[in-house]
Design goal:
Strand content: under 5%
Number of domains: 1
Structural class: mainly alpha
Largest sheet: none
Helix content: over 70%
Number of helices: 6
Radius of gyration: 16 Å
Length: about 130
């Protein structure tokens, strides 16, 4: 019974996360405008998700404890591309995506790097 309830909670969390940004993405696509989206806040959210996901992977936590973060990251990347598409230049997104992809590898070079990034991320939330 306990395992079934835990499984239900895990899968419902994944379902909610999968649908979390869909209304925002569909509203942006319907309006054909990125007005109201903040690039700095989207990048901060994306960085937070990336650091947390990398921390969880680095320390070998079970995938069910962080499986929603790749879904959230993918939705934020879609919103990032929408911002640049509707502002007229998708090519400007290239440096941002390159930094996000390279940071995935940089965070895991040394243990202190991922720990420091996670510590700084927790400090921003307080």
């Amino acid at each position: 019974m306990e395992a079934a309830l835990l499984g239900l909670c895990n899968w419902s969390t994944l379902g909610v996360c999968a649908a979390l940004k869909l209304p925002q993405i569909s509203a942006v696509l319907a309006a054909r405008s990125a007005r109201g989206l903040s690039l700095p806040s989207l990048l901060l959210e994306l960085a937070g998700f990336l650091v947390f996901l990398r921390y969880q992977c680095y320390y070998g936590y079970p995938p069910l404890t962080y499986l929603e973060f790749p879904i959230l990251i993918a939705q934020d990347v879609i919103l990032l591309l929408c911002i640049f598409h509707f502002n007229g230049n998708v090519k400007q997104a290239t440096p941002y995506i390159a930094v996000l992809v390279s940071s995935w590898f940089v965070l895991a070079l040394q243990k202190w790097i991922v720990d420091l990034a996670m510590e700084n991320q927790a400090g921003r939330l307080q």
